[in-house]
Amino acid sequence: MPNITFILPDESIKVVDAIDGDSVMQTAVDNDIEEITADCGGSCSCATCHCIIDDAWIDKVGTADEAETAVMESAIEMTPNSRLSCQIKVTDALEGLIVHVPESEW
Ligand code: FES
């Protein structure tokens, strides 16, 4: 059961246990991270699960593909490490992952 560290907009830190196979979005929702509302339920169409992967982790997590980028570009202010958390699957390889949660744009 990997743990994920979420750094919230006020810089507070929330370390949570994640379930292997869940998405990072589901992990955030299950742990009451309110900024991630995940309005489309994980179908890569709303961008309300936007997160920013810590620099130390972006190579392992990978950057957004074309479809994910298109959704983000139409809805939010993207950064180079921006991802839709519903598109990141939790695996043991992500033990210790650090995710920055931006201020909600909704
Ligand atoms: S939950 Fe809608 S794009 Fe991720």
Give me some keywords for this one.
106 residues; alpha+beta; Ubiquitin-like (UB roll); binds FE2/S2 (inorganic) cluster
Folded structure, characterized:
With 106 residues, the chain is of the alpha+beta class. It is built from 3 helices and 5 strands. The model has no long low-confidence stretch (mean pLDDT 96). Bound molecules: FE2/S2 (inorganic) cluster. The site of FE2/S2 (inorganic) cluster has 13 residues, from loops.
Gross morphology is globular
User: Spatial order of the strands in the main sheet?
Assistant: 2-1-5-3-4
Parts with pLDDT < 50 across at least 5 consecutive residues: none
Radius of gyration: 12 Å
What is the gist of this entry?
With 106 residues, the protein is of the alpha+beta class. It has helices at 24-30, 58-61, 66-75; strands at 3-7, 13-17, 50-53, 82-84, 97-100.
